Amino acid sequence: MTPTFTHVPHGRFVAAVEALAATLRADPWRPSLLVGVGRGGLVPAVFLSHATGLPMVSIDFSTPIPEFNDALVGALAARSAAGERLVFVEDINDSGRTIAALRQGLTDAGGPRDNVRFAVLIDNSVSAERVDYADRVIDRTVTKDWFVFPWEAVAPPAALAQDAAEIPQRIA
Question: Which residues belong to any copy of the Phosphoribosyltransferase domain (predicted)?
Answer without folding.
Answer: 10-152
